[in-house]
Amino acid sequence: MKDEIIYRHSLYVGSFPVDEQDNVCRAQKVQKELESLRCFTRSKSVIVCVSISGIKICSDDLKIVYMAHALRRISYATCDAVHKQVAFLAREPSGFGNLQYCHVFVTESPCDVSSQCMSFYFLNKASSIVIHSHNS
Asked: Which residues contact 15 (CB under 8 A, 6 or more apart)?
């Protein structure tokens, strides 16, 4: 189990900063931004690789790593099956204070959202990541 990696195809639709001080305000900011990203015009096809070490976002052929976040830097994950969105909050390696970035992905189908959320749940079993599912 230690070296297991879960691979999920997604569209990367963007990232945004989140610097709210408390968890409730942070979750509200994420929800508001996710609502604004429901209609997107630009995206990049990626593979989301989830393991006990963290999350890597790679090219479709897995040859390029666009971003990598160690498990200890990921604090929150959420999904919205209706809009096929999956997102997670992570602190940059040299991040200051409460500043984090929310990385947003869209899956091919609502079923894929559930699968992606289960991948994040897999991470949650080994950490203190807060998982939130939104079905509006």
From this structure: 101, 102, 103, 104
pLDDT single digits (tens) 3-50: 688 888 999 999 999 988 888 888 899 999 999 999 999 999 999 998
Q: Distance (Å, rounded) from C-alpha 84 to C-alpha 135?
A: 10
Instruction: Round to whole Å and give the CA distance between 33 and 29.
Output: 6
**DSSP conformation letters of 83-136:** TTEEEEEE--TT--TT-EEEEEEE-SSHHHHHHHHHHHHHHHTTS--EEEEE--
What CATH number is attached to the domain comprising 28?
A: 2.30.29.30
Q: Tell me, rounded to whole angstroms, the distance of Cα 22 from its chain centroid.
A: 19
Domain encompassing residue 97:
5-127
Maximal CA-CA distance, the chain: 38
Structural domain contains residue 132: no
Helices (H), 13-106: 23-36
pLDDT digits (tens, 9 = 90+) for 67-125: 999 888 888 888 888 899 989 999 877 766 678 999 999 988 766 665 665 565 555 55
Task: Give the count of domains, the chain.
Answer: 1
Q: Is residue 136 part of a domain?
A: no
